[in-house]
């Protein structure tokens, strides 16, 4: 089955700096890679996703890159703000099918 | 519109009792997923449905766990003879065909 590794497990950045989270996956059949943000006590919410026919996708301060050959994908957050503080999860799978999640990255943005 | 809802939000039960957790997906969503999330970890897949058909139950830990979605809308996850190790947050999610999964608020299950 699919296995997703996520690094780092914690990330502390100064407000305004960039944050990068990296994930690797094992199953070459995976074609859908969403990123979820989970604030304390809340449900996971999708922030961006990418499909395997695209190498990069950007939405305002958030971007995701995918390298299918190397089986890794990354989340980039620029100009971080205190409200970006949360746990971020990457996932891999087949759209319309089950997702395998990484272990999460706790991001702390210091004012 | 209304998002995914789950009930109860909290359930405390004694070891050996059966529990039923309910998920009400977003109206019109074809797919419904069940995950279990331990504190500080990512959701772990349990099972999923397209309409009323259970497509994959490979994540169910053992035969004490079962799920159904008889009319292709509301789903119930049932855990028989609960054990302490079953304590976790149980989340469901729903999606349109091959699209984003929207998560519910979860049911926090505590087995004493």
Task: Explain what the structure shows.
The complex is a heterodimer of chains A (111) and B (112). Chain A is mainly β and 111 residues long. Chain A is built from no helices and eleven strands. In chain A, strand 4 and strand 5 form a beta hairpin. Chain B is mainly β and 112 residues long. Chain B is 0% helix and 49% strand. In chain B, the strands form two sheets. In chain B, strands 2, 4, 5, 6, 9, 10 and 11 form a seven-stranded mixed sheet that branches. Chain B is globular. Chain B starts with a strand and ends with a strand. Chain A binds chain B through residues 1, 6, 34, 36, 43-46, 49, 87, 89, 91, 95-104, and chain B through 31, 33, 40-45, 48, 50, 55-56, 58-59, 91, 95, 97-106.
Largest sheet of chain B: 7 strands, mixed
| Radius of gyration computed on alpha carbons of chain A | 13 Å
**Strand content range of chain A:** over 45%
Query: Which percent range fits the helix content of chain A?
Result: under 10%
Low-confidence region ranges of chain B: none
Strand percentage of chain B = over 45%
Oligomer: heterodimer
**How many E strands of chain A?**
11
List the helices and strands of chain A in order. Answer: EEEEEEEEEEE
What structural category arises from helix and sheet content of chain B? mainly beta
The rough form of chain B would be described as: globular
Indicate the overall shape of chain A.
Answer: globular
Outline the biggest β-sheet of chain A: 6 strands, mixed
The sequence of SSEs of chain B as H and E is EEEEEEEEEEE
Mean pLDDT score of chain A = 95
Greatest chain-chain contact: A-B, 22 and 26 residues
């Amino acid at each position: 089955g699919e296995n997703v590794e996520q690094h780092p497990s914690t990330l502390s950045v100064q407000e305004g700096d960039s944050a990068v989270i990296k994930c690797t996956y094992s199953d070459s059949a995976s074609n859908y890679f969403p990123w979820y943000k989970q604030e304390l006590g809340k449900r996971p919410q999708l922030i961006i996703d990418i499909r395997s026919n695209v190498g990069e996708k950007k939405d305002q301060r958030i971007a995701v890159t995918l390298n299918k050959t190397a089986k890794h994908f990354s989340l980039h957050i620029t100009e971080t703000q205190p409200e970006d503080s949360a746990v971020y999860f990457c996932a891999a799978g087949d759209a319309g099918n089950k997702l395998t999640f990484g272990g999460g990255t706790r991001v702390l943005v210091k004012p | 519109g209304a998002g995914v809802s789950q009930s109860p939000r909290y359930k405390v039960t004694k070891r050996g009792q059966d529990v039923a957790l309910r998920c009400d997906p977003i109206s019109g969503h074809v797919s419904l997923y069940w995950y279990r999330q331990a504190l500080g970890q990512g959701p772990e897949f349990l099972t999923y449905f397209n309409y009323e058909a259970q497509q994959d139950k490979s994540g169910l830990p053992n035969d004490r766990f079962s799920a159904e979605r008889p009319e292709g809308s509301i789903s119930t996850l049932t855990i028989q003879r609960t054990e302490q190790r079953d304590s976790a947050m149980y989340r469901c999610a729903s999606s349109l065909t091959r699209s984003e999964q929207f998560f519910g608020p979860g049911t926090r299950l505590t087995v004493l």
